[in-house]
Automatic annotation (TrEMBL):
Top-level taxon of origin: Archaea
Alphabetical UniProt keywords: DNA recombination, DNA-binding, Transposition
UniProt cross-references to PANTHER family, sorted A to Z: RNA-GUIDED DNA ENDONUCLEASE RV2885C-RELATED, TRANSPOSASE
NCBIfam families: guided_TnpB (NF040570), IS200/IS605 family accessory protein TnpB-like domain (TIGR01766)
Protein's name according to its UniProt entry: Transposase
Domain Probable transposase IS891/IS1136/IS1341 as annotated: residue spans: 163-275
Length: 402
C-alpha cells in the first residue's frame, strides 16, 4: 500500500520573489473561490480551470502551472466544505485565502535535493538553500516519490517547504494476520496497548493530564485579569500548549509502534472516535480536559507510523468497550469506577484502560475472523520531528485500588 508523508523543511534565506509570488497566487485563489461560490456548489478542477485559466494568466499574471494549481487547490477546498455542509457542521460560504502558502507540482515548478529547493517564481526559476534536519534524511532516497507540495509562511515569519512524498510499503493481508494489538487512548494514560499474547504497554501516564492542568490554571488566572496584555499572553500560551501536546503525542505514538514491532504485531486496532466530542457528555469540571484532548491526532500519528513499519491499522466500533468485561463479556456501567474495572458478573479485576484495550484487541481479531468466513472485507469508514519524554511501563499492569 501507499504511505504518504509530509516533511517540513525551513528555507535558510528568502527574498522578495517569494512574497510577491505568494500575493499574486492568493489573488488568483480568491478569484477562483468567487467563481465556485457563485456557482452554488463545488466543481471539478478541470471545469474550474476552464473558467479561470485565461483570467489567471492574462489579468492576474500567474504562470501556466500556477494557474492549474490554483484550480486544483480551490476545487479541493470546496469539496471539503461541501462534505462539512452535508454533515451539518457548517453552511455553504465563500472561502477567503490569505497569502501564506503556494502549491507547487514536482518536476513542473519545483525540484528538490538535500541542500536546495528550486521553484518557479514570477521573477523566474530560483534556488533556495534549505535546512535539512537529521530526521528528514530518509526522505531523500529513491524509494520516496515526491508529490504536489507547499511553500508556507509560518507564524514566525519564516518560510518552510512542506514536502509531500509517498512510497510503497508491503502490508500483510489481514486474513493472514495472527498477532493483534488493541490500543485504548485516554487522558490518564495517553495510550494503553495489549497484544493477543496479553503483553502490554502503558504510555504517557499523567504527563498529558499534568500539562493540561498546568495550562488550565494559567489560563484562568489570565482570564480573570481581562487586560489586552493578558489576552495576548493567552494566545501565546494556547500555541505553546498545542505544540507541547503534539510533541508528546509524537513520542507516545513512536513508543507504541516500536512496542508493536517488537511484539511482532500484524494489525493494530483502535476505536473509531470520529464523533466522540459531539456524542460524549462530561461533567463541567472535566470539560476542558475532554475538549482539549488530542485523541484523533494521537491516533493519526500511530496510524502513519505503524503503516510505515508495515503494520496494518483498523478502526472498530467503540460502543461499550469501557463497560464490557474482557473476560466474560458482561456489559454494565457499574463495572467501571475511575481506573478500576471490577466485573459485577464474574468478579474479574483489571486496570480499566487495559480492559478497554483488550476489548479493542478482541474486536479487531473478531473482524479478521469475520472477513475470513465471509470472504470479503468491509472496514469501518474512518478519516489519514521526534520529540521527548513519555512515561512507559511495559509488561506489568498498574495497580488498581479495591
Amino acid at each position: 500500500m501507499q504511505v504518504t508523508k509530509t516533511v517540513v523543511l525551513k528555507l535558510k534565506k528568502s527574498d522578495q520573489s517569494i512574497p510577491k509570488t505568494m500575493e499574486r497566487y492568493t489573488k488568483g485563489m480568491n478569484f477562483a473561490s468567487k467563481v465556485v461560490y457563485e456557482n452554488g456548489e463545488p466543481m471539478s478542477s478541470t471545469k474550474l480551470q476552464e473558467l479561470t485559466y485565461k483570467h489567471l494568466r492574462e489579468d492576474i499574471g500567474l504562470l501556466s502551472q500556477m494557474s492549474c494549481n490554483v484550480a486544483r487547490q480551490v476545487s479541493g477546498t470546496y469539496k471539503t466544505l461541501q462534505e462539512q455542509v452535508e454533515n451539518g457542521k457548517t453552511e455553504w460560504q465563500k472561502s477567503e485565502f490569505s497569502p501564506t502558502n503556494i502549491k507547487f507540482s514536482y518536476g513542473r515548478d519545483y525540484k528538490i535535493s538535500k541542500e536546495k529547493l528550486s521553484i518557479s517564481t514570477l521573477d523566474g526559476r530560483k534556488e533556495y538553500e534549505i535546512i535539512n534536519y537529521d530526521y528528514a534524511e530518509q526522505y531523500f532516497s529513491e524509494e520516496w516519490k515526491y508529490l504536489a507540495s507547499e511553500l508556507v509562511k509560518h507564524r514566525d515569519g519564516e518560510y518552510y517547504f512542506h514536502l509531500s512524498c509517498e512510497k510503497e510499503v508491503e502490508e500483510k493481508p489481514i486474513e493472514e494476520a495472527s498477532n493483534f494489538m488493541g490500543i485504548d487512548v485516554g487522558i490518564n494514560y495517553l495510550a494503553v496497548g495489549t497484544t493477543t499474547d496479553k503483553n502490554q504497554a502503558f504510555l504517557g501516564g499523567g504527563k498529558a493530564k499534568d500539562l493540561r492542568n498546568t495550562y488550565e490554571k494559567m489560563r484562568k488566572r489570565l482570564q480573570s485579569k481581562g487586560t489586552f496584555s493578558a489576552y495576548k499572553r493567552l494566545k501565546a500560551l494556547s500555541g505553546k500548549e498545542k505544540r507541547l501536546m503534539e510533541q508528546l503525542n509524537h513520542e507516545v505514538s513512536k513508543e507504541i509502534v516500536e512496542f508493536a514491532k517488537e511484539e511482532g504485531v500484524d494489525v493494530i486496532g483502535m476505536e473509531d472516535l470520529t464523533d466522540m466530542r459531539e456524542e460524549t457528555k462530561v461533567r463541567k469540571e472535566n470539560r476542558y480536559n475532554h475538549d482539549s484532548w488530542a485523541f484523533r491526532q494521537l491516533q493519526k500519528f500511530i496510524e502513519y507510523k505503524a503503516i510505515e513499519r508495515g503494520i496494518r491499522v483498523e478502526y472498530v466500533d467503540p460502543e461499550n468497550t469501557s463497560k464490557t468485561c474482557s473476560r466474560c463479556g458482561h456489559i454494565s456501567r457499574n463495572n467501571r469506577d475511575g481506573l478500576d474495572f471490577v466485573c459485577e458478573e464474574c468478579g474479574y479485576e483489571l486496570h480499566a484502560d487495559l480492559n478497554g484495550a483488550r476489548n479493542i484487541e478482541h474486536r479487531v481479531r473478531d473482524f479478521r475472523h469475520d472477513l475470513e468466513s465471509q470472504g470479503s472485507r468491509q472496514p469501518p469508514d474512518v478519516d489519514g520531528v521526534e520529540a521527548t519524554s513519555a512515561t512507559a511501563s511495559r509488561g506489568a499492569e498498574p495497580q488498581t485500588s479495591s
